[in-house]
Specification:
Elements: H1 2-7, E1 12-21, E2 28-30, E3 43-54, E4 69-73, H2 84-102, E5 107-116, E6 138-139, H3 143-153, H4 158-161, E7 166-174, E8 184-187, E9 197-203, E10 208-214, E11 222-224, E12 232-240, E13 251-253, E14 268-276
Parallel strand pairs: 2-9, 3-11
Antiparallel strand pairs: 1-3, 4-12, 5-14, 6-10, 7-12, 7-14, 8-11, 8-13, 9-10
Length: about 280
């Protein structure tokens, strides 16, 4: 009975950090150190109360093309996720197989992965490999930045690949234990307005990309998967060149005040890939 109580589906009232402007300049974010005397970003926060609905028990109701996200049961041969080379050797092929099987991909190009763990509070001011959950509503790429990635990563094939469907999909998985603290919320594309999207310049040392921050809209409808396990994957659509279906998915970590205080902190891996309908 105790296990059933822990796993019982429940919606979570919480607060999400939406976009608020700082100053008059167009929004920007430096990926590394900004020029001397310049803030690393000018992105403010607009905390808003929301209800995050639990998808547990009706995971099959959601799909990448209808909602912009999808839940998939797919156990991994990798469990430690503590070595980048082993992740690339063992886990990347799994991600490709997920995208071929679930998303119908003909070609997959994985361009990065990120491990998220609670940052060490004793490492303030020191370099750290621990990147904590992002508690801000965002989308990983703008439409144009997504297309630009094709030319950036696959210059020899870009002209041909861009003539057919292009997607960017984030494959998100908990690692080591079920998620209790800072679970992942995803927003249903069907309740998003184009005016909600705020392009943010994403400034690297050698190039520039762009992401979307998101303005608050009370029509947004949010979901998460309670007690999501390492065997359960969330597919997050970051871009789709097809315009007659879900094209992207706002997402954010959020506080679940009902989570057991002694539960381990969230650990997760996200792998982002260009997905093509042609070879």
């Amino acid at each position: 009975m105790a296990t059933a109580a822990v796993l019982a589906p429940h919606d979570v009232p919480t607060t999400l950090n939406y976009y608020a402007p700082i100053g008059e300049e167009a929004p920007y974010q430096y990926v590394q150190e900004p020029p001397e005397g310049r803030p690393s970003n000018n992105i403010g926060t607009d905390p808003q109360p929301v209800l995050v609905h639990d998808a547990r028990g009706h995971e099959a109701d959601f799909s990448l093309d209808q909602n912009g996200f999808q839940y998939v049961k797919w156990p991994s041969v990798e469990s430690a996720f503590d070595d980048d080379e082993r992740i690339k050797e063992k886990y990347y092929p799994e991600v490709e197989e997920i995208l071929r099987t679930v998303a119908g991909a003909k070609r997959v190009f994985i361009f990065d992965h990120t491990i998220r763990r609670k940052p060490n509070p004793e490492a303030v001011g020191k370099p750290s490999d621990n990147r904590g959950p992002v508690e801000r509503v965002h989308i990983d790429q703008t439409y144009q930045a997504s297309l630009n990635r094709v030319s950036y990563h696959l210059p020899e094939d870009a002209e041909r690949l861009l003539k057919s469907r292009v997607r960017i999909i984030n494959v998100w998985r908990p690692i080591h234990h079920p998620v209790a603290h800072k679970p992942l919320a995803v927003s249903d594309w069907r309740f998003l307005d184009a005016q909600d999207l705020v392009p943010v310049r994403f400034i690297y040392p050698h190039r520039e990309g762009s992401t979307y921050s998101v303005r608050y809209n009370p029509n947004h409808r949010w979901y998460y998967l309670s007690d999501q396990t390492p065997e359960e994957v969330t597919l997050i659509k970051c871009f789709d060149s097809e315009e007659d279906r879900a094209r992207l998915t706002p997402h954010s970590a959020f506080l679940d005040a009902t989570a057991p205080k002694d539960a381990p902190h969230r650990e997760s891996i996200e792998v982002r890939a260009l997905v093509f309908d042609t070879e």
